[in-house]
Every structure is written in structure tokens, then in C-alpha cells.
């Protein structure tokens, strides 16, 4: 195994305060003094002070500078150490990227992505890059023989940094960042803030697979410290997830924005009368062999673009597992499903009626506009009431594929349908299992001895009764139903509003 320690390093007094500043990597040109926050640039054996760096806000990540691990690429393992940390802000919130120094002297980036992580390395393309202004969301682009889809295009700015850095963009100065994704799960990011633009290739990774050492300890103590007074009512609000960017107050139900850190001004918005989730926040449920915790809940409204008067509602539970990351449990009129964000980008057909992903072809089930109208708990993206997306749902049997699009980003999620009894049992709510039943459940079994004709008549009678009842009493803003009685389905199969990209 390669040695974790670089062959040579350079230490000199900070020009601002005299504290030692160490450069571990020969390619690093900048460092942030840990004592006075001076931005220091190295020119040979001379250090110059460029100014003061904004202080990092504490996002309570388990990662920290000098943590080390193993990166496996094409069967070859290589040690790495985290030497730098950068915090960025875009239109969809803030996120962190860590500069990693590998044992062979090369550099990589460990960045946040949809509640998980992507490990990226600098890449070289065998052709000229398209200008940022020519790329549009959803466009298919072929680069070096690989077909990508433009997943996001955003104005990004550095807001804080720490440690040792090979490059440091001007603080607070916006630059164009474009992210492309392939159907094979590769992420290609292009930083147009540099000339020539910097290209990085990456893939999704679980922190547990990196065999990390030197992570932050005393997590319980730090989590207790993440308590603050609600800016609306003053009640104590407890943040428990390192990646949370939005949380709701349990007392007044205000939605609180955490994207600037707890120590700064907290923006919030009030909500109307709260909804009561069928599965309580904090509940633990075992699905797909993993114990998931319900950390967030949102209710959403859909609207058919061809019939604006038709609305329908559904619920999404945000599930969290320390090693698996995040998934969504979706409660819709036509059944339950469990999905997770994809790293890759499925390929749409020219007419948009089918989507291909990992060798499977999915048929379009429906398309609609979606809006979030109630949230509770914690979320790893800056969720807001009134957030709107354009959605498409695809299906292949019980396997599901969903696309959500905002003005600056496209996110995909994939998963499968679940039986209502499975969901009730997973969360130990068997005594309330009747409340979990949805319209996908078969009312009768062919094995009961009844003729097919009798079964069809009974089914039709049950449907008529249910449709009449729903037409009279159902409110899609508070129930997972359709306002139009002719509708038999309609729900997002997951995804989320503005939570993709690096965020």
C-alpha cells in the first residue's frame, strides 16, 4: 500500500499572524491560516497574504481536514488525505467540497451530491468544450465518445475555505458551473470560472467504502450544540443531521433555512395548519434489509397541464440511514413506492415517451406540474413551501423512474412499488394497516372461488362507491387523492425539489 505521507512539505510563518502555515502538496498554491483566517499564497519559498477568508460555517459534517481513507479505482486501491475544504453557494443553496491528496501526488475532490458523495478526479477531453452559454438543461452532449445529459447549469460562488488548496477562486465572485451526467452513472463537472475550463469526472461513493479514518469524534456532543431558538416563536429547535439545510419548528411549524449556518441570520416562513403524517417523524422502519429513520415529510400537489382544474396530492417521507444515505418513501393514491436519487442521467427518447436507464426501457406514465405545500422535519436540500417542478413518471412493471425539472436543474430517482402491508409492518403499525391501503390493492382474490364475472362486477361496484365518496369529501391539499373523480393515479415516484447537483 502506498504511504499516506507526502514526500515533502513546506512550512513557513503566516504573514498575517506568524502562526505556522504548512503546504503538503507541491501543486498547492493557496492555504488558509487556521489562526487568523488569512488567505496565503505561496510563490516559491515566499508566502504572501492576499486578505482574510470568510469563516466556514459549521455544517457538522463527519469529515474534517487530515482525515484519510482508501479510494479504489479499476481494482487499484490508493490512500488519500483530505487537505482542503471549500464551501460554495448556488441558486439551490450551499454545499461543501473537500480537496483530497492521493498517495501518488495527484489530487481529487470529494463533494456532496444529493445527500450522498461523489469522488472526482481531474479529466482531459479529446475535443474542445462547448461554451457554457450554448448548453441547455436536458440537452444531450457527446464528449470523448460518451453521451451526457446536462443536469444543471448554475452561477456558483465561493463563500469560505480552509486548509490547503491548489486553486482558490475569488471570494464571492460568481462563475458558471455546468454538470453533465451519463446513463452509466458518471458525473462530469465543468468549471467555467477558469481558463481553460476545468473538467472533473466522478462517480457516486459511500463513505463507508472509503474506509475513512480520523473523522470528527464527539458527534453526540456536537449534535447537542446544534440547538437554537426558533426565529418565529423562540422554541428550541434541535438539528440532528449533519447535512440538513432546512428544518421545521415543532412548535409553530415555521420552515427555517439553515443554508447559511446556525450562527447567522435564520430565514423562516410560516405554514398553515399542520398535516399529521401517517408515519411519525423519528420512526424507524426496516425496508430492503435496512433500518431507516423518518427524518422529513412533505406533502405535494400535482396539476395536469392539459386540465389545470384537476389537482391531486401525495406525501413523501425522507428516510435516512447513516451508511446508505437518503431514500424516499412515497405515499400516493395509486400505491406506495420507495425510491432514491440516481447519480446517472437516464436517456429520454426524442418524443419523451420513453426513458432508458441501466439497460432497461421505461414507458411514460404521466407528466404534471408539482408544488410543495407542506413540510416537516429535516431536509438535506433547501426545501420551501411553494417550490414548483415539472415532473415525468415512467414505469416498467413495478420498477419506477421519475424525473423532476426546475429552471436550473434536472434530477432523477428510481425505485419500485411496495405493498401497503409491507410498509405498515416495517414501521410496526400493523394495528393501523387498513390506513395504509391504497387503490393498487386487490379487493378480492381469484382463489376465493368466485367467478371472474362476479369479481369484475364487485370491483366495479366498489370503485363506483369509492369514487363518489372521494368526489364528495377528498381535499388533495390534505389527502393523497385526486380532485377529479376520473383520475385513478398520479404521484411522484420520488425525487425532490432543487436538491440535485453538488448540493
TrEMBL record:
Biased composition (Gly residues): 492-503
Alphabetically ordered keywords of this record: Membrane, Transmembrane, Transmembrane helix
Pfam family, one: DUF4178
Domain of life: Bacteria
Transmembrane segments: 449-469
Domain DUF4178: 78-204, 281-419
Chain residue ranges for the region called Disordered: 477-503
Official protein name in the record: Uncharacterized protein DUF4178
Amino acid at each position: 500500500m502506498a504511504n499516506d505521507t507526502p514526500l515533502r512539505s513546506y512550512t513557513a510563518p503566516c504573514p498575517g499572524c506568524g502562526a505556522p502555515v504548512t503546504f503538503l502538496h507541491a501543486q498547492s498554491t493557496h492555504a488558509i491560516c487556521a489562526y487568523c483566517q488569512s488567505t496565503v499564497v505561496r510563490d516559491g519559498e515566499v508566502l504572501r497574504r492576499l486578505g482574510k477568508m470568510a469563516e466556514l460555517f459549521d455544517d457538522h459534517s463527519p469529515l474534517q481536514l487530515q482525515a484519510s481513507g482508501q479510494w479504489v479505482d479499476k481494482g487499484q486501491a490508493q490512500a488519500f488525505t483530505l487537505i482542503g475544504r471549500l464551501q460554495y453557494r448556488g441558486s439551490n443553496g450551499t454545499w461543501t467540497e473537500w480537496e483530497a491528496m492521493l498517495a501518488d501526488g495527484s489530487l481529487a475532490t470529494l463533494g456532496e451530491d444529493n445527500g450522498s458523495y461523489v469522488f472526482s478526479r481531474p479529466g482531459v477531453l479529446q475535443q474542445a468544450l462547448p461554451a457554457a452559454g450554448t448548453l441547455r438543461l436536458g440537452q444531450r452532449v457527446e464528449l470523448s465518445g460518451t453521451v451526457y445529459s446536462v443536469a444543471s447549469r448554475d452561477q456558483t460562488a465561493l463563500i469560505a475555505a480552509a486548509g490547503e488548496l491548489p486553486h482558490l477562486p475569488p471570494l464571492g465572485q460568481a462563475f458558471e458551473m455546468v454538470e453533465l451526467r451519463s446513463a452509466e452513472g458518471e458525473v462530469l463537472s465543468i468549471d467555467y470560472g477558469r481558463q481553460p475550463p476545468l473538467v472533473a469526472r466522478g462517480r457516486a461513493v459511500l463513505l463507508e467504502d472509503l474506509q475513512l479514518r480520523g473523522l470528527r469524534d464527539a458527534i453526540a456532543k456536537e449534535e447537542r450544540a446544534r440547538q437554537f431558538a426558533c426565529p418565529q416563536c423562540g422554541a428550541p429547535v434541535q438539528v440532528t443531521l449533519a447535512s440538513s439545510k432546512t428544518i421545521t419548528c415543532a412548535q409553530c411549524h415555521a420552515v427555517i433555512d439553515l443554508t447559511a449556518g446556525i450562527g447567522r441570520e435564520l430565514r423562516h416562513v410560516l405554514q398553515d395548519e399542520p398535516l399529521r403524517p401517517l408515519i411519525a417523524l423519528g420512526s424507524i422502519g426496516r425496508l430492503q434489509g435496512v433500518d431507516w429513520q423518518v427524518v422529513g415529510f412533505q406533502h405535494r400537489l400535482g396539476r395536469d397541464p392539459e386540465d389545470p382544474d384537476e389537482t391531486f396530492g401525495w406525501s413523501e417521507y425522507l428516510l435516512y440511514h447513516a451508511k446508505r444515505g437518503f431514500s424516499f418513501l412515497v405515499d400516493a393514491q395509486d400505491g406506495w413506492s420507495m425510491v432514491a436519487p440516481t447519480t446517472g442521467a437516464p436517456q429520454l427518447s426524442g418524443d419523451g415517451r420513453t426513458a432508458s436507464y441501466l439497460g432497461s426501457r421505461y414507458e411514460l406514465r404521466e407528466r404534471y406540474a408539482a408544488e410543495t405545500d407542506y413540510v416537516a422535519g429535516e431536509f438535506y436540500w433547501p426545501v420551501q413551501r411553494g417550490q414548483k417542478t415539472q415532473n415525468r413518471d415512467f414505469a416498467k412493471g413495478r420498477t419506477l423512474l421519475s424525473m423532476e425539472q426546475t429552471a436550473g436543474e434536472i434530477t432523477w430517482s428510481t425505485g419500485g412499488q411496495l405493498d401497503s402491508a409491507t410498509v405498515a409492518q416495517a414501521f410496526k403499525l400493523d394495528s393501523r394497516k387498513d390506513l395504509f391501503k391504497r387503490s393498487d390493492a386487490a379487493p378480492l382474490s381469484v382463489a376465493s372461488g368466485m367467478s371472474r364475472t362476479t369479481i369484475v362486477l364487485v370491483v366495479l361496484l366498489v370503485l363506483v362507491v369509492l369514487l363518489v365518496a372521494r368526489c364528495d369529501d377528498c381535499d388533495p391539499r390534505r389527502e393523497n387523492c385526486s380532485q377529479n373523480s376520473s383520475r385513478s393515479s398520479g404521484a411522484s415516484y420520488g425525487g425532490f425539489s432543487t436538491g440535485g447537483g453538488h448540493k
